[in-house]
């Protein structure tokens, strides 16, 4: 799960200053965790404690009121009883990766991904985006080859994963929708030969960089295995103690261990 947080932190300086190259410093002075990390860790905390997703999102999210939430989600977050608001935005997809680590059947992964999404992002595209990312993480950690992941996600969700980054990058711009974020983020992983390359690929698209990288690197960690120690350490030192506590508790229980399919 640390992979998602790393992607968020590395992508954060480029969210509103897009770049179209893979050549950039991984960490800068203004590389910070954003709402992607806070909500990913809220998903992990809800799983760890067996708590309601909406309740946990609100509880943890309110500790970090300046984490750059979208305007609609912010209103939901600080409301006591707001229900879902039919969102198709990529917030449902960026926070879901712990589901792919924590549950042991595809059926459970898809069901839990739906539950994480529908408390706020109950539009069919919002649910689909969350399910696609969670399933990709699950398949990757189970040792599925990239082409199997590509085929399974395409068949289940109808995303076009046949395009190349070279085709997508020139015309790609800031897009907060699941349908405009999840496919290119997954392609950034599919074209990568390492965890670091997956992050660089995602940021280089020039869109919602922290969320693209959060999704791509979540799957990349599950596929390539434990993160490079220097990258992991640099990301960890940028988290607060309570966020680190949740991260460590989740990884102690579910572990970043790739499981080979038999």
Explain the overall architecture.
The protein has helices at residues 2-11, 35-49, 53-61, 71-77, 91-94, 97-102, 106-118, 124-141, 146-157, 165-168, 178-190, 195-203, 209-224, 229-236, 241-254. With 262 residues, the chain is mainly alpha-helical. It has one domain (2-250): ADP-ribosylglycohydrolase fold, CATH 1.10.4080. α8 (124-141) packs antiparallel against α9 (146-157). The longest helix has 18 residues, at 124-141. The protein is globular and about 45 Å long. It starts with a helix and ends in an 8-residue tail after the last helix. Residues 257-262 have low confidence and may be disordered.
Q: In terms of topology, how is this protein built?
A:
Blueprint: H1 2-11, H2 35-49, H3 53-61, H4 71-77, H5 91-94, H6 97-102, H7 106-118, H8 124-141, H9 146-157, H10 165-168, H11 178-190, H12 195-203, H13 209-224, H14 229-236, H15 241-254
Based on the model shown, name its key terms.
262 residues, mainly alpha, ADP-ribosylglycohydrolase fold, globular
What's a quick, concise take on this entry?
The protein has helices spanning 2-11, 35-49, 53-61, 71-77, 91-94, 97-102, 106-118, 124-141, 146-157, 165-168, 178-190, 195-203, 209-224, 229-236, 241-254.
Mean pLDDT: 95
Residue fraction in strands:
under 5%
Give the overall shape, derived from the CA principal axes: globular
Q: Provide the number of structural domains.
A: 1
Q: Please write the CATH class name.
A: Mainly Alpha
């Amino acid at each position: 799960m640390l992979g998602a947080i790393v992607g968020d932190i590395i992508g954060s300086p480029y969210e509103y200053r897009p770049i179209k190259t893979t050549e950039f410093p991984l960490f800068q002075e203004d590389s910070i965790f954003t709402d992607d990390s806070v909500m990913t860790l809220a998903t992990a905390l809800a799983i760890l404690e067996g708590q309601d997703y909406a309740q946990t999102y609100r509880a943890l999210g309110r500790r970090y009121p300046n984490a750059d939430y979208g305007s609609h989600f912010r209103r939901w977050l600080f409301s006591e009883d707001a229900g879902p608001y039919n969102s198709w935005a990529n917030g449902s997809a960026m926070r879901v990766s712990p589901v792919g680590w924590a549950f042991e059947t595809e059926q459970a992964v898809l069901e839990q991904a739906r539950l994480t999404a529908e408390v706020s992002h109950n539009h069919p595209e919002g649910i689909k985006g969350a399910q696609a990312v969670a399933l990709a993480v699950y398949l990757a950690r189970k040792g599925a080859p990239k082409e199997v992941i590509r085929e399974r996600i395409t068949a289940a969700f109808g995303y076009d994963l046949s395009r190349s980054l070279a085709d997508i990058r020139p015309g790609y711009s800031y897009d907060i929708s699941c349908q405009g974020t999840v496919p290119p983020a997954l392609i950034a992983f599919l074209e990568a030969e390492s965890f670091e390359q997956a992050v660089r690929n995602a940021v280089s698209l020039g869109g919602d960089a922290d969320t693209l990288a959060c999704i791509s690197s979540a799957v990349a960690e599950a596929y390539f295995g434990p993160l490079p120690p220097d990258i992991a350490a640099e990301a960890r030192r940028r988290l607060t103690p309570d966020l680190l506590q949740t991260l460590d508790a989740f990884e102690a229980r579910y572990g970043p261990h790739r499981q080979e399919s038999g």
